[in-house]
Amino acid sequence: MLNKNFLWGVATAANQIEGAYDQDGKGLSTADVLPGNIRKKYIFSPNELLKHKFSYYPSYKAIDFYDHYKSDIKLMKELGIKSYRMSIAWTRIYPNGIEEQPNEKGLEFYDKIFDLLNEANIQPMVTLSHFEMPLYLTKKYNGWANKKVINLFEKYAKTVFLRYKDKVKYWLTFNEVNSVTVMPFHSGGAITNDKSQITQLGYQCLHNQAVAAAKANKLCHEIIPNAQIGCMIQYSPIYPYSCHPDDFWAAQNFERTRETFATDLFVRGQYPFYTKRLFDQLDIKINTTPDELKILQDHSADFIAISYYMSLTMARKDFMSQTTEGNIFSGLKNPNLQSTKWGWQIDPKGLRIALNQLFDKYQKPICIVENGVGMKEKLINGTVNDQGRISYLRSHIRALEEASDDGVKLMGYYVWSIFDLVSNSTGEMSKRYGLVYVDVDDNGHGTFNRYKKASFDWYKKVIETNGKEL
Length: 470
Ligand code: BG6
What we know:
Elements: E1 7-11, H1 14-17, H2 39-44, H3 65-79, E2 83-87, H4 90-93, H5 104-119, E3 123-129, H6 135-141, H7 148-164, E4 170-174, H8 184-188, H9 198-223, E5 228-234, E6 238-240, H10 245-268, H11 275-282, H12 290-298, E7 303-307, E8 312-314, E9 323-324, E10 331-332, E11 338-339, E12 345-346, H13 348-362, E13 366-371, H14 387-406, E14 410-415, E15 436-438, E16 450-452, H15 454-464
Parallel strand pairs: 1-2, 1-14, 2-3, 3-4, 4-5, 5-7, 6-8, 7-13, 13-14
Antiparallel strand pairs: 9-10, 11-12, 15-16
6-O-phosphono-beta-D-glucopyranose binds near residues 307, 370, 374, 423 and 424.
């Protein structure tokens, strides 16, 4: 049984919906230099990215939430959600990240959104940085590789906490922060030309982000005493491919070094016990100070937020052939699971496992801030009969209800997403995630009109019955 305050929601990110990339004083962000269909290549290997001029950048217009927010929030109200997870574009507030004064127009834009949400009885949950930061900070400091960015982020966080203290009670620092160890540019604005340095760079960014998050947690608690601020990671349970002890070890090692390493820092406030050996093996050295380590310890996150899309399967090195796609990490094909068109393996039971594992480890409330499925879809007679999405969501909600009955303390569940939006990993629009169809194609053409899919009414009912009617 879910408690009556359970946060049923939907989630989006600024650069995937807003558009208006240069309006009202907004600066360029790292997301604004990512192209459309050939995006994946640059996410993991951005070296040449800044030298290229592409013909089309999906974030420029995205789904034009900037001009549709009033009617879009009306749809949210009609859906009956209790909470809306969204992100603030740092570059609307501080266009280059370094200005003395914030951009008033940017602040006003989010004021209008929060006011409408509050009028509709929808609690905003706000991510401070969802896979973007001022591009200027990449060029000047190499993003999160440089500790100077910590104070700039602190200034930005302070500005928005002070401005929205009466309007926003739920905050998240960085989206899927554990991803920075494999994609330091996309997740941390940092680039290296030397492939062998990616891990070193990624873990240094993670450290600096952990310190920045701890400082933001402190500020948030001081400025908005009744707020909660969480650490957000991408989490998948990692299955061993066989019962060979080496496969089990490979799975366990992956889980802790790529996933819960981050939650140890952000939630437990400490480097995990195996850090020295790991860093020796990886031949990396992280620049930390005693003051920073104390800050981590003193100002940890209040809750754990996860995105859940799939489980992953790992084996010892020699058996790691035939990997399948995942949103950030890829693993082996699991013969027991079906996959989406993009190779993401569908595993509702994995969500129950994930929630139990994380709660067991940290004993902190958990919020599922992203779960959903991308599909190729066509509008027929003004709607989409997306039974595939309904069955995906139904099975995952059942799994979280099982976890809740197991005793896991759950805060909420957010569908990714209410609208079809620009895919983060591929830049496509045709990888559709919405409960609402948006008429835009992969090249940004279309009417931008919104059409409710069958899943919209289905999810509305789920919310009305607090998850009883699935
Ligand atoms: C998560 C991200 O990794 O997955 C979102 O936080 C993203 O930004 C979502 O959109 C789905 O991934 P994709 O690549 O299919 O858009």
